[in-house]
Amino acid sequence: MADNNNVIVNSWNEWDPLKHVVVGRADFSCIAASEPALDAKVPEDSEMRGMYGPRPLATVEAANAQLDNYVAILEKRGIKVSRPTAIQWNRSVATPDWSVESMFGCMPPRDVLLTVGREIVEATMSYRCRWFEYLAYRPLLNEWFNEDKGFRWEAAPKPRLTDADYRPDYLSDKIGIEQRLKWMQERYYVTTEEEPLFDAADVCRMGKDLFVQHGFTTNLKAMDWLQRHYPDHRVHAVNFPGDPYPIHIDATFVPVRPGLIINNPNRKLNPEQKKLFTDNDWEIVEAAQPAHKTPPPLCYSSVWLSQNFLVLDPKTVCVEASELAQQEQLSNFGFEVIPVPFRDAYAFGGGLHCATADVYREGKCEDYFSKQ
């Protein structure tokens, strides 16, 4: 048993100096089978509609090679890296309410683990195929719980994920972009308010304030739960009407240091919500254009993983190696940019930020938005 003063978990924002992080694995990853939440995300013209099962071994090996290289880069910078324990995701799972043919994977720990200060919360998850994903991280959480006496380990209320959690309007495969964008303006998403639903990757931590994307994977009831769970924080809903598939905030709205946010030019922050940032002297700039016109094969994500970068500290950032325009933009803002090859890993759950979950960043809880 470690010393009672051994602090393992501590992280209040997305930019303080990173000292310990979880990086995912691609082992045994699957393309998830059809279910309400997933079907709403997959574009109508995607080749992946109706596809499911284990991902090709060659792609798993290529993704793992890039993940291992990413780990080596971080460790060379003096950052401790922990890894999840992959399980056999290619098996059917069920609860009394539903069953699915397979699970997903554990490449993107960012989706599951929400670190706020000295606490890590296991998110509810909004997809049935991801209901058991927390199991990959339980060995780490249990180890840290034993060693860090101040670490608070929580699990958000596990949802039932019955059909009542999803709007039947989204079951059609002929919705079209125009209708989707209309629904985005109306804040009419596939998830209902039946029970709290959230993925950790919808939460952007900025000290005392938590900005949470309202969309396909997180509902307002979850924000109510988060506000009650963190009574000393301020929880804000944010919306990006230009995004027809609003899932996770990391390729849309990315703070890189106090006072500076990179915003996807196609998914701009709702104007009424922008005032809080301008009132507190934050600059919101449009992200550089992606280097690629299409995502890699068998990838659900958009080309805007170009801005899914990992901030190591307020002067250093990891950016995907081929995204030269994004690297140049951040360099012009005074950052040391570390290029990291990562496109082979994209299909397994996202970019450089998605593939990580904070464990420890130096620093404390600050109030960056005192003018509310």
Short overview:
The chain is an alpha/beta fold. It has helices at 36-41, 57-76, 138-147, 177-186, 220-229, 271-279, 324-332, and strands spanning 18-23, 30-31, 53-54, 80-82, 93-94, 99-100, 113-116, 119-122, 152-155, 203-206, 209-213, 234-238, 253-257, 260-263, 283-286, 310-313, 316-320, 336-340, 356-361. Strand 5 (93-94) and strand 6 (99-100) form a beta hairpin.
Characterise the protein shown here.
- The protein is an alpha/beta fold.
- It has a single domain (18-361), classed as L-arginine/glycine Amidinotransferase, Chain A, CATH 3.75.10.
- The protein has 7 helices and 19 strands.
- It has helices at residues 36-41, 57-76, 138-147, 177-186, 220-229, 271-279, 324-332; strands spanning 18-23, 30-31, 53-54, 80-82, 93-94, 99-100, 113-116, 119-122, 152-155, 203-206, 209-213, 234-238, 253-257, 260-263, 283-286, 310-313, 316-320, 336-340, 356-361.
- It has a 3-stranded mixed β-sheet, with helices on one face.
- A hairpin with a 4-residue loop joins β5 (93-94) and β6 (99-100).
- The longest helix has 20 residues, at 57-76.
- The protein is globular.
- The chain starts with 17 loop residues before the first strand and ends in an 11-residue tail after the last strand.
- The model has no long low-confidence stretch (mean pLDDT 95).
